[in-house]
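Title: Prediction job returns without error message
Component: structure pipeline
Severity: low
Priority: P3
Assignee: unassigned

Description:
Job completed but the reporter wants confirmation the result is attached to the right record. Sequence as submitted:
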Amino acid sequence: MKFLIDNNLSVKLVTNLAVHFPGTTHVKDILGIDAMDTELWSYSFENNFTILTKDNDFDEMSQLNGCPPKVIHLLCGNKPTPFIIEMLEKNIDGILQFGVDKETCLLKIW
């Protein structure tokens, strides 16, 4: 599993996540900072990315469209990057399981 990190999250997450999830990148490096949600969704679908976001829109898109792509929705509000890194590390087992689960399209983490 590799992540396409949404613009609402720091590009600094790439370095930390790439250790467990090689190929992870930030949307600004592929589609730019003005990329629309639909562009991110399409790119993730076409290139086998899991979307990592804090944006409710992707939660709704996942429920409407199913997957791929898979979506990890972080429910943490406006927290600093170290908090988000710790949050993801605490949930690494669940994230890895989500990656291999063929039935589940959306993972919410809080």
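Comment from assignee: result matches the submitted record. Residues 2 and 19 are 10 Å apart (CA to CA).
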